[in-house]
Design brief:
4 helices; seven-stranded mixed β-sheet; eight-stranded antiparallel barrel; about 280 residues; about 40% strand; Rossmann fold
């Protein structure tokens, strides 16, 4: 994996095998190459809660450590996209050495051109500027896709979780790193019609979404709109709170394309349903 800045004070070393070696912090197409350590890779996959049936894509996959660890530890399919053809060839040899060549695929290509939409887990070690460039594409991925980045955030997209880790000792010393997790949220931005809201049957609701958070208002005939509080989306799960006629309600539900369904205050008798109007 690669990133934009050197870590001050770390000695430079060569990485690879007897057929190809690359110097630590060597210049690449967009940024410099720094290898992801095995213990960091395993913690990134753990943060994503990788499970059977997942497909991991690693963008800027370098020597292939993340896809290889995904296949080795979880027995799942994994794909690495890497621009440097020598690193792609090295990754394939590394996969053979770890006996996971039937589970991993390494593609030579540009991460801004290649299709990674089938990923259920996406891993990054790129740099914040590249993360930001990728963010619009990532936000269009299937809701619930887990995105994990080593060291670098995505500016206005607040992580759903972050973990500080200390990599093990090696020839370049121990590193303190932070890894970040985002869950791609379903898109609810727009106008919906809801049924089942108390005293508000078949009412119009407007959602204004900002990544995994949203504001919203319920149109109430003859009075001021009711505002939502604590609106949040995690994949296809949605929650918000509101108050009407002096009583507080908490909605918890699921989004399925242009439909929303759920219950109020944890009571299965208080069913609420919504459909997108525009």
């Amino acid at each position: 994996s690669i990133f934009i800045s050197l870590l001050t004070g770390c000695a430079l070393h060569n990485y690879g095998d007897d057929q190809f070696q690359l110097r630590w912090a060597a210049h690449g197409k967009d940024i410099m190459w720094v290898p992801t350590r095995v213990d960091t890779a395993t913690q990134m996959l753990a943060l994503a809660q990788v499970k059977s049936g997942d497909i991991v894509y690693d963008l800027g996959s370098g020597d292939g450590v993340i896809p290889i660890q995904a296949a080795k530890r979880y027995g799942i399919r994994a794909v690495g996209i890497e621009y440097n053809p020598d690193l792609v060839a090295l990754s394939k040899r590394n996969a053979i050495r770890e006996n996971v060549q039937n589970l991993v695929t390494f593609k030579q290509g540009d991460i801004f051109v290649e299709d990674f939409s089938s990923a259920t887990v996406l891993t990054l070690f790129l740099g914040e500027s590249l993360n930001l460039k990728l963010m619009p594409t990532i936000l269009k991925m299937k809701p619930g896709t887990r995105v994990v980045s080593n060291t670098f955030r995505m500016d206005s997209w607040i992580p759903d979780q972050e973990v500080s880790i200390r990599s093990g000792e090696s020839t370049i010393g121990a590193l303190n790193e932070t890894i970040y997790l985002w869950i791609v949220p379903a898109n609810i931005d727009g106008v919906w019609e809801f049924t089942g809201l108390p005293n508000l049957d078949k009412t119009s609701v407007r959602f204004i979404q900002k990544k995994q958070f949203f504001d919203g208002t319920i149109a109430k005939l003859g009075s001021r709109p009711i505002s939502f509080e604590d609106g949040k989306i995690r994949g296809e799960a949605i929650q918000f709170d509101f108050e009407t006629n002096g009583k507080k309600y908490s909605f918890r539900g699921q989004i399925s394309g242009s439909q929303i369904s759920g219950i109020l205050n944890g009571d299965p008798k208080l069913n609420v349903a919504g459909k997108r109007l525009k």
